[in-house]
Amino acid sequence: MRNHRRLLGNIGQALIYLVLTVGVCFWLIPFAWMFLASLKPTAEIFTRLWPTRFTLEHYELIFRGGTALRRPFLRSVFNSFSVAATETAAIVAIGALTGYALGRLEFKGRDLLYNTILYQMIFPGILFLIPTFLLVMRLGLVNTYLGMVVRFLADATAVFLFAQFFRTIPRDLTDAARVDGAGELTILWRIVIPLSGSVTAFVALFNFQARWNEFLWNLIVARKYELMTLPVLLASFTHEYGGGQYAGARMAGATVLTLPMLILFVLARRYFEEGVVTTGLKG
Amino acid sequence: MTAKAEPPALEVRPASKSASNRIGYLLVSPYVVYNVVLWFYPFVWGFIIAFQKWNIISPEREFVLFDNFVAALTNTQFWNALSVTFKFWAFFLPTVTIASLVLGMLLQRVNHFRGLFIAGYLASYSMAGVAYSVVFALLFSGNGLINKWLWQMFHVRIPWFSDPRIAIFSIGLLVVWKFIGYYGLIFLSGLQAIPRELYEAAAMDGANGWTRFWRVTVPLLNPCFTVIFVFATILAFGIFTEPFMITGGGPLGSTQTFKLLIYQKTFENLEAGYGSAMAILMAALSFGATSLVRKAIEREVVLS
Prior knowledge:
The complex is a heterodimer.
Chain A: H1 2-38, H2 57-63, H3 73-104, H4 110-121, H5 126-138, H6 145-149, H7 156-167, H8 171-179, H9 184-192, H10 197-213, H11 216-221, H12 230-240, H13 247-267, H14 269-282
Helix pairs in contact in A: 1-13, 2-13, 3-7, 3-10, 3-12, 4-7, 8-9, 10-13, 10-14, 12-13
Chain B: H1 17-50, E1 52-53, E2 62-63, H2 67-73, H3 76-108, H4 114-126, H5 129-139, H6 145-154, H7 167-192, H8 196-204, H9 209-220, H10 222-238, H11 241-246, H12 258-268, H13 272-297
Antiparallel strand pairs in B: 1-2
């Protein structure tokens, strides 16, 4: 009887692994197909799953012939990286400073600011799209890097996450430093941040990913090819050359757009998982 | 450090209240200044613009009171966008909830390779909207891989993005693909927080698996359901990249979401006031729907 039960349990376990494995393969098809299609000769993209030969012609087209198509893909990779890195750095820096003040200091108006931030987190972003664009336009920042980054220099959720985490660090640690005469900035930089590796990593990774993938804002601010980020350039390329002829080039562009995030994601999986759970349950 | 040999009574708060205030203000000032300029100011201005007739490029603006709102509410495109959003929501929310709950429950039952499975399902969340849109546009195209398989297996082809009756649901399917790992992980963490004893006690009372699921699991997962329902509702109002890239709002306006409509009105037709009025209406609808969803399902859960 017990053996019988254990056997049933084992079969059940095996079934669960089977379902999850088949599911995950199915779920990863778009990645695999995109990657393969970017390496197939054009004629085989729709006709063969596994190509007769691999080719880099699509990557060559977008990176070298890209200028012939008037679209500097290489430059857009650089643009994407610079814009996302600048925004992420600002979000982390401002988030940590504000989170430290809100989480560990006492000052008049602190609760008001904290509640405002909670409110900002759930505010519909669409309300800001048009007026912010008009502001950027009036400041002459359309078609500039500054115009792109200025919208994403601080993030309420980042402040919230830092404040929540900083609160959990034992008072004794920072009080001791304060007795020794350390300033608040020194305490933040030397003691609090080193103890907050996981939340800092999560805020940085999550925002870098979101900023790298950002589409709508960069679409309306960057209208010149030289300034477009990779998603915007790929979208403009897709809208002009939507047919089958450039399908491989589009897949090459999509691969270049996806691969850095996928690698980052695999390397830093732990922080993503932890962070998704905390933001999901608290946000 | 050596000076601490004889610990004095620790008075470690900064010397005075005003000094404490000063350092606090100093640290929050970048955030506050930034948000005054790029949050509060645009927020107020957005409302002012909505009461004006303005085509962005000309310096002429005139106050037109509620004209923009009236124009939006009497425009069939606005109601079409609402119906598109509702269809998306009605499909997306149950599908993604059930799929990710099943995923969470399966993940809870495996001991090996769990991290690997999570990474596999979560990978879709890391992909840019533009990237997966161009990929799915080809995968789901008339002669794409999916239709080829469907033809081989069932002798049918589905016009995923070209039939106005199903295009928005096809987009819903892509978004399910993107979010199942994310939501599955939220469910997994919720499931892991449920004490085993509760299931054992329920089993002792003679509850079978099905009853335990409905009487123990579902009620205790209420915070997860609430979060996911709220996320899914906000998402339904915020769909932009997928229809922009794949269908352009078509066929026959069947995928013209609010955000796409606002984008087209404002940045293609340059009707800033009209677009702003629509944005305000959409934000109000989104906020109202989210509050309703919250009210409908959120329950106090006490886990001792």
